[in-house]
Amino acid sequence: MKNILTFWVRYQLFWLLFFSLSRAAFLLYHLDRTAPIATQLLGRAFLHGLRLDVSVAAGLTLLPTLLLAGAALVPGRLVRPLLAVYTAGLLLLISLLSVADLELYNAWEFRIDSTFLKYVNTPDLMLASAKSTPLLRLGGLLVAWVLGPLLAYRWLLHPLAARSGAPAPPAAELPRLLLGLALAAGAAAGLAAGLAPLFFSRLFVVVAFLAVLGALVLVAAYWRTRPPLVLRPLGGGLLLAALLLLLMRGSFAQNGALRQSSAYFCNVPFANHLALNVGWNFCDSWSRKSYARQNPYLFFAPDTARRQVRSLYQRAAAAAPPRLLRTSRPNVLFIVWESFTAKCVEPLGGVPGVTPRFAALCREGILFDHLYASSDQSDKGMVALLSGFPAQPTTSIMEIPGKSRQLPVLCQDVERAGYRTKFYLGSNLNFTNMRSYVSSFQEVVDENAFSRHERNAEWGVHDHVVFDYVLRDINRQSRASAQPFFRAMFTISSHPPFDVPMPTVFAGTDDDSRFKNSLYYTDKSLGDFIARAKRQPWWENTLVVILADHGLPLLPYQNQAQNYHIPMLWLGGALARHDTVVHTVCSQVDVAATVLSQLNLPTQAYPWSNDIFRPRAARFAYFATSSDGFGFVAPNRQFVFDNHQRRVIWRQGAVVAADVAQAQAYEQLSVQEYLDK
After folding, report:
1. Where do the domains of the chain lie, and which CATH numbers do they carry?
2. 378 belongs to the catalytic site
3. Using a CB cutoff of 8 Å and minimum separation of 24, what contacts does 188-197 make?
């Protein structure tokens, strides 16, 4: 029993030290982010992160505790290798998450969670994205991250495990031993199966306790030949396991279960993120990713939430919106530009010289200078654009075909109006179940439409090759038929690792420089495409809509809302206005209703989408953050709300309580609709 208790204490201390060192490594890796942060806050992050560290350490100690509690049943020569393999496997998994988190944080600005699992079904794209990461450096860190703790385990804990266990049993007793172990394994499996849905309730503690008790009693019942040797470690192990269950939950109080916000302690995002435990954060986000069947964002009673949201969509009594097109049935071409942030568009105050062709085109069409993306991921941006449906913070409706097929889609509405529809992507359509979503187009073109030598980009086909294909395809079909077309093209070259087939324009190997080079390349490809398209007969009857799928947290920014600020430009011979700037605050979800309205088509199927040109009660944009929060932008104010802390973590302008309430209601109802589909 003494060995069990000593191992129990040391094993948890081992993991707590490992988590603290991992937190220190994360801090050192991102030391450049700490300049404006008080040293005291960084120190407090280690203290406030202990609650989650203790929870994870307790969870990792549970199985070894049960194994040692039944040590009298297990031959001593088995205990040591079992614990060593178990510990090594956990170290490898958690270290992989921790090392990946170092670089992913630069791109996402939130700690690693289950979001990256969307890449599992497309390993080629996962490897392509990894090309821009310092793999050699991260590989060295991974080796150190695993080997160092393993050596510490061998020195501190391995000898204790070696002294546990029973002598090898006689051959006649082996069937009874195997039966007892099978019963224990079955009870443990049942406990694991019940872990996810019950973890955040007191019921979890009770059920888990009874499961452990039942397993140990059954084992004891089937090993009656040596009860004194069995019951003493079983009883002690049972008490220790019960204590671990309580430590895992954090409290026995009804509302005392640990949350991500349990580690948050200030209004500085990086300091709060530093306090998080990578393993806990990943498991927590994975268990909550689909929201199960319960809405986690219940701020108001349903009727109150509906009234709040209705006030954002009330129409003002006024004239019909202005007509911006010379015809009601123009061709429509959407060009969705990967990660096209307003921070790189000079007319929007962005870095000069990154997208000069687009900047010049702004004087030829209608520029929307206060448009905000619905989220920070491509799949959510596509749904917002084509279906006018808001993004959810930690899940994506595109990834669940049973839900996404219930959404309205622009291509289906225009098809009913006589259009021929087609979608182009020079990459793998299986990513985030995009193939299922875009199957609503009559024709779909992906990387398989291109020759092998054309598929030489990390993510598939370089943008200039796809632009050439689109131009040839439109020319061919326009000559064959006078039927109006609706096309959507999605670029890929400005996605990490930002590999582009052109000489470097912005010197440097850092992500910011590589990103600017990729935008410059796509900008040149777009400019060449537009120049050639203008010479085609179909141009005079075509509306071209250029906008981003989302922004990107690269390049310097003054506030979080800037990462969601994206440009939108309307071009084409079908436009009745040129050299115009629309200053209205609007959202990516508003594009669907706005385009349909200009085509004189009904918009009732898009209740979340506002016609940008129709007078209404509120001018606003809502966006969801993948770190589980949302932002709200209005003409003279904006803020970001964190769902973990249940409070506003950044604001600018005259933000009032009514603004926060409206945005909370918006999140609540949009997520509820997602759940109901």
Report:
1. 2-170+199-206+226-288 (no CATH), 330-618 (3.40.720.10)
2. yes
3. 188/63, 188/66, 188/215, 196/287, 197/292
